[in-house]
Amino acid sequence: MASSSGNETGLRVGFIGLGLMGKPMAKNLLAAGNHLMVASRSRGPVDELVAAGASAATGLAELAGFAEAVITMLPTPAVTSEVLLEEGLLESMRPGALLVDMGTETPELAKRIHARAEGLGIEALDAPVSGGDTGAIAGTLSIMAGGSESAFRRAAPLFRAMGTSIRHVGGAGAGQAVKAVNQVMVAGILATVAEGLALLERAEVDVPEALAALAGGRAGSTLLEVKAAQMLEHRYQPGFRVELHLKDLGIVEDFARSVGVSLPFTALATQMLRAVEASGGAMLDHCAIIEAVRGLSRLEVSGE
Amino acid sequence: MASSSGNETGLRVGFIGLGLMGKPMAKNLLAAGNHLMVASRSRGPVDELVAAGASAATGLAELAGFAEAVITMLPTPAVTSEVLLEEGLLESMRPGALLVDMGTETPELAKRIHARAEGLGIEALDAPVSGGDTGAIAGTLSIMAGGSESAFRRAAPLFRAMGTSIRHVGGAGAGQAVKAVNQVMVAGILATVAEGLALLERAEVDVPEALAALAGGRAGSTLLEVKAAQMLEHRYQPGFRVELHLKDLGIVEDFARSVGVSLPFTALATQMLRAVEASGGAMLDHCAIIEAVRGLSRLEVSGE
């Protein structure tokens, strides 16, 4: 839980999208002393936030009229585009208000949102996050924000309620570009850690000492630290679901195509995650990618 | 440079193999107060160690007769096997002496060396390292040792002169097994970091802030920290040479085949490193793998 010291100026915040990530993020904003109005497709999380002190919007127009800052944390680029560009949320917002889109999409969509907002006198940030639901709950997300310096300064108190690594990485779309790079690295490192552990578990070694040796050398990584035990113990409760990582990797592929970069490791990691999904693991934590690596060495090979 | 506090008991150490790694490791053993006799194929490093206070062996028999502990740090499994198993070094060693093989080879060869040593009343350890020449020079290597508890205790003061992460990871061959896993992870993470950076450099972002954001989230890794600047600035001085990483990955492949594990990410990373080698980069630092990723997106495509 983030600090609720009351040092932050309480803002009137409209929060849209109370999913696995959005719900705890909204709770942390509330705990930090902000006034929250929320909207979400499912009633359960809305009731939960209302019980914690938020108000429920009767519709997006009411939320837009209330908020000095609107935060969107929607599941896909299509939904984000629908809510922000097609359903007129931006047009309903107060002039001078701040829009912070924290979902993951292409830099290109982020730039279209920024452009539309600018035309309406609204300051916008694309500010996707890394850190999973555990990071969202603990208020320790990594937040990568793209937009103007002025918008970043206004959003900073809100970001501090949700994250610990808060970076202004450039102008419109820069947050999404860095998030794409983040997803490339997370997919590849996760796959690589899985492959190393699939080899390790076939070797005659003292596993805890071996993990400590790996962490202490050039192979050290955050994912090795936070995911090795789960992978070795076949515990795949999410966390960050396979289907969501695949959704993000589709966005990465769109972005890479638009800038003309070939990503062979990401393609392989994507296919291994798809293998897990195809085998019924869409809702598992993405560290279940180790099952794809293990499975490759125990196929049911038959034939003449 | 490692501490030369004099708290370590000075041992009579024979050190064989004064290459890019071995030479600074031997110097750190000397600085820690050990009595060193050295042997190496090239005269230059031998003279350098003699100038620092070591003695030069006239041959392996003299070195074996002198040493309470023999350390080998030879470039390939073939050379290690030749020196230890074919040229009779083990047979020349003093009964009760300690053999510490710090080169990289398969767990299977390490087990053969252990077995031969045991038959001669010599305690053996396979203790490969991670950390590159910079780690060897600074005395900050990660050392993964396989063998008996008693052998590990005897070698510990020597290890402390060369490394900071010192782990007893199991019995005979366990050090090499963990080193293989280490090389799997290093190859895959390096490739993944390269791919992420190749995408990052095509995006409109504030690069230092972006790197800080990546390091602070799930994508964080030791290789991102130590290699990102080199990769982005096209600086490929070794470090750890492409040809040596490829040599280690050949050993990994032999080990994986022997235990029946399929390693698709390692295979791809190996081929990307081979592309760098094929293009004249064998002697460059392995972070030059980013040139293979960049090169994929600017091929000279011609044809009808």
Structure keywords:
homodimer; 304 residues; alpha/beta; Rossmann fold; N-(1-d-carboxylethyl)-l-norvaline Dehydrogenase, domain 2; 2 domains; nine-stranded mixed beta sheet; 14 helices; disordered N terminus
Task: Name the largest protein-protein interface in this structure.
Answer: A-B, 75 and 74 residues
Work out the helicity level of chain A. Answer: 40-55%
Number of domains of chain A: 2
Q: Briefly note the structural class of the backbone of chain A.
A: alpha/beta
Description:
- Two copies of one chain form a homodimer.
- With 304 residues, chain A is of the alpha/beta class.
- Chain A folds into two domains: 12-170, NAD(P)-binding Rossmann-like Domain (Rossmann fold); 178-297, N-(1-d-carboxylethyl)-l-norvaline Dehydrogenase, domain 2, CATH 1.10.1040.10.
- The first copy, chain A, has helices at residues 22-31, 43-51, 60-66, 77-86, 89-92, 107-119, 132-138, 149-162, 174-200, 207-215, 222-232, 242-259, 264-281, 289-296, and strands at 12-16, 35-39, 55-56, 69-72, 98-101, 123-126, 129-130, 141-147, 163-170.
- In chain A, strands 1, 2, 3, 4, 5, 6, 7, 8 and 9 form a nine-stranded mixed beta sheet that branches.
- In chain A, helix 1 (22-31) links the parallel strand 1 and strand 2.
- In chain A, helix 9 crosses helix 11 (222-232) and helix 9 crosses helix 14.
- The longest helix of chain A has 27 residues, at 174-200.
- Mean pLDDT of chain A is 95; it is low at 1-8.
- At the A-B interface, strand 8, strand 9, helix 9, helix 10 and helix 11 of A face strand 8, strand 9, helix 9, helix 10 and helix 11 of B.
